[in-house]
Amino acid sequence: MNTVLPLVERAVPPLELPESAREGLTSTPFGLYVHVPFCATRCGYCDFNTYTSDELGPGANRAEYAGTAIDELRRAAALLGPDLPTVSTVFVGGGTPTLLPAADLTAVLAEVRRLFPVAADVEVTTEANPETVDLGYLSALREGGFTRVSLGMQSAAEHVLAVLDRRHTPGRAVQAAHDARAAGFEHVNLDLIYGTPGESDADWAASLDAVLASPVDHVSAYALIVEEGTRLARRISRGELPMPDDDVLADRYEQADSTLRRAGFDWYEVSNWVTSDAARCRHNELYWANANWWGVGPGAHSHVGGLRWWNVKHPAAYADRLARGESPHADAELLDDDDRALETVMLGLRLREGLPLELLSELGRRRAADAVTRGLLDEAAHVAGRAVLTDPGRLLADALVRDLTD
């Protein structure tokens, strides 16, 4: 007779911050990320750590989540103290954070302010699905201290939204951007996805036109990535939809860049454009600079001084750990100097400012010189000692990063 043994969690050492990670703790930019894992429905292309209500068990419901996240914030302050870093950015992502009541999100922010020193000009962002917010909700967030909102638009074409399994209707994202401005948000972002099967040149142009008709100062545009295990991947494998074409993706990117530039936007990271430096997402810049952040929530990742750790993924397991007074982390690793240098190059090259050539290995510097001759890195910047992507180089940024770091 076969016996089914109960699942036992692997023992994980307690989370401790080594002295090497504490060096520069109060002088390095520090941010907080709060992951809200709930979605009304699962989008067909998404492989993020998110769950619908049907997928969750006891202890992982939305009504209790703010309190659970606050429990982890208190653990964070206790572990990082007594000399706490100043919080320069807070980013609430998901999932769909705006499925929680505005009062829950502002309560989490209030606890951040109670526990940590917070910069006077702190940037506080929430992601939002357009169908989950209105003027009243956004006004409550603004009054509670949120300064920035990022709306998931993806497309202005109804049939493209249907392929992506997005619930909002065309036009709703633009209206939500107007509501955000009316609520007092100075910085408003719209997220786009290009290359969805069935999307035409005209569809993409219409999406860009819709963005430019809205009161935003930041635009993010990402190529559709078909992630293994998603509904979209299964539909493509069955032949119901074609795989995104690399040439089409490149054309879409160039179309976005030229359209946005004509309208007064400029790129500051390969997939992000702004109307001014003040509109740049400082929280994402903190990631790209390989600075410090604590990720709150199931599956959230953290990095402090070369120590990286990540939480258990399921909301029920996450909540159970905290209810027992235990750390919710699943595992951790201490990066060595070579690892950190490699990540600095991988992240920094995607930025408009590029990075100092001295951060590259000898082989990397030779390859950077070759990339200049191929028109992928800027010649004048190279002479001045920096590796900076040209417009053609941005199309091949991922391949170039691999080439310079191998």
TrEMBL record:
Major place of residence: cytoplasm
Keyword Transcription regulation among UniProt keywords: no
Domain of life, per lineage: Bacteria
SMART domains the UniProt entry points to: Elp3 (SM00729)
Entry GO MF terms: 4 iron, 4 sulfur cluster binding; coproporphyrinogen oxidase activity; metal ion binding
Boundaries of every Radical SAM core domain copy: 24-266
Listed GO biological process terms: porphyrin-containing compound biosynthetic process
Gene Ontology annotations for the cellular component aspect, listed alphabetically: cytoplasm
UniProt subcellular location: Cytoplasm
Keywords in alphabetical order: 4Fe-4S, Chaperone, Cytoplasm, Heme, Iron, Iron-sulfur, Metal-binding, S-adenosyl-L-methionine
Matches recorded under PROSITE patterns: RADICAL_SAM
InterPro entries named among the record's database cross-references: Aldolase_TIM, Coproporphyrinogen-III_oxidase, Elp3/MiaA/NifB-like_rSAM, HemN_C, HemW-like, rSAM, rSAM_sf
Annotated function: Probably acts as a heme chaperone, transferring heme to an unknown acceptor. Binds one molecule of heme per monomer, possibly covalently. Binds 1 [4Fe-4S] cluster. The cluster is coordinated with 3 cysteines and an exchangeable S-adenosyl-L-methionine.
Entry similarity comment: Belongs to the anaerobic coproporphyrinogen-III oxidase family. HemW subfamily.
Entry protein name: Heme chaperone HemW
Species annotation: Blastococcus aggregatus
